[in-house]
Design a protein that fits this description.
The structure holds two protein chains of two kinds. Chain A is about 20% helix and about 55% strand. Chain A has an eight-stranded antiparallel barrel with strand order 1-2-3-4-5-8-9-12. Chain A has a two-stranded antiparallel sheet with strand order 10-11. The N and C termini of chain A lie far apart (about 45 Å). Chain B is about 10% helix and about 40% strand. Chain B has one helix and eleven strands. Classes of the chains: A alpha+beta, B mainly beta.
Chain lengths: ~240, ~160
């Protein structure tokens, strides 16, 4: 138990440190920009929108739940992106002894830091790691249960509907590749660590959009995105001076 | 530059993982909370010791229905398990220490039920709080409740049967 708490604390601290580093980097660059007439401007601005195309495929394969995810990221400075993600989903848990439905929506915010040095202003390919903070709102509908007892007789009942809020820390790593001008494909893997597990002890929803298994405190997941980038303010091609 | 080929390979890999049919997790914990009882016998010294002297004990639940179930032992056993009804607040069992001898007692458990969520894999069950146990004394000397809370913990003895 102590190790699990320590692990979560460590992950949370890592997420915080990544975000702090990103903003420190931006702050330093801002002050440098003032002196050097904004050298990062030569890379221009990029706002990218993406959709997780693996989710519809998974939705077809899974009968128990569906989800959809999208993201937007914005190139801040020095290979750091601000990222916002969101989506929604539902689950239908239907078994003879326990059945209910749930709906959920979520958003995540965080930063990504590129690991590969850019070759120039037109090079937007990236391998990255990042951190997220996720928040989901879940509505679990009325649940029906049956306690099977062949000896004394089975009993059935219902559990009232309930709203949950889940929040978690997340570490992420992945790749983005520009296939055509402005059109990207990319994947990432994620490790998620639920921060309020105590709220999920009584009939936790089996699936939370944006998080995954609601009855697990640690979840690993992946995404496969198709993204489109809007760019403006790009300067002429140049190798970034450090 | 990262080759798009890598992306395609990874997408195929991801799709293969994603397309695996998701099955319900197996339930890996006891679904039924049982009353665990140990038999004790009095020694000449005045003390009582836990023993396995019950030979071929027979347990018969009085379900109130036409069907009766027997749980017969074929050897000396140390622990007797009694299930409790989820549709009533009391359950009755007949216990015969030796199946070959027609001497038996009736145990009546009075209890409160507490609905408990186990997991999505296991669903719900009932835990119990034993209020008292009434027993006839044809063979039995006494039945003492050692622990009132009956949960899925299998390392707890709830009832002591003194012969």
């Amino acid at each position: 138990m102590f190790r699990l708490v320590s692990l979560r604390f460590w992950v949370l601290m890592q997420c915080v440190s990544i975000i702090v580093c990103a903003f420190e980097s931006k702050a330093q660059t801002d002050s440098t920009d003032a002196k050097k007439k904004k050298p990062a401007e030569q890379y221009g601005h990029q706002l990218r929108f993406g959709f997780d195309i693996s989710r519809p495929v998974i939705n077809l394969a899974q009968s128990t739940h569906t989800s959809y995810e999208a993201l937007a990221d914005y190139y801040l400075v020095k290979d750091v992106y601000a990222v916002a993600e969101g989506g929604f989903g539902s689950a239908d848990y239907a078994y003879p002894d326990l059945s209910y439905t749930s709906k959920s929506s979520f958003f995540r915010v965080g930063v990504d830091k590129t690991l590969i040095r850019r070759l120039g202003a037109s090079d937007w390919d990236a391998a990255f790691f990042g951190a997220r903070y996720g928040l989901a709102f879940i509505n679990r509908g009325e649940a029906s249960y049956t306690i099977v007892d062949s000896l004394w007789g089975s009993t059935s009942g219902t559990i009232a509907a309930k709203n949950f809020t889940a929040h978690w820390a997340e570490i992420v790593a992945g790749v983005r590749v520009e296939l055509l001008k402005g059109l990207f494909a990319g994947w990432n893997v994620r490790g998620r660590f639920l921060l309020n597990e105590a709220s999920f002890r009584d009939l936790s929803p089996v699936f939370i959009a944006g998080y995954g298994r609601g009855d697990k405190t640690t979840v690993f997941d992946f995404n496969f995105y198709l993204l489109y980038a809007l760019r403006w303010g790009a300067g002429k091609e140049a190798v970034r001076p450090d | 530059m990262i080759k798009p080929f890598h992306i395609i390979v990874l997408f195929c890999f991801a799709a293969a993982i994603g397309c695996q049919k998701e099955e319900r997790d197996p339930c890996l914990q006891p679904r039924t909370a049982l009353v665990r009882a140990h038999a004790y016998r009095h020694e000449d010294t005045g003390t009582a010791i836990r023993d396995t002297f019950l030979s071929n004990p027979l347990l018969l639940p009085l379900t109130g229905g036409s069907t009766q179930y027997y749980f017969g032992g074929v050897k000396r056993i140390a622990i007797l398990n009694f299930s409790l009804s989820d549709v009533a607040d009391s359950s009755r069992w007949i216990i015969r220490p030796d199946s070959a001898v027609a001497l038996e007692d009736t145990l009546t458990f009075y209890y409160d039920r507490q609905l408990r969520f186990l997991s999505n894999a296991c669903g719900y069950t009932n835990y119990y709080n034993i209020r008292r146990v009434a027993a006839t004394r044809h063979v039995l000397d006494s039945a003492i409740v050692a622990r009132q809370d009956v949960t899925s913990d299998v390392n707890v003895d709830h009832l002591r049967l003194y012969y």
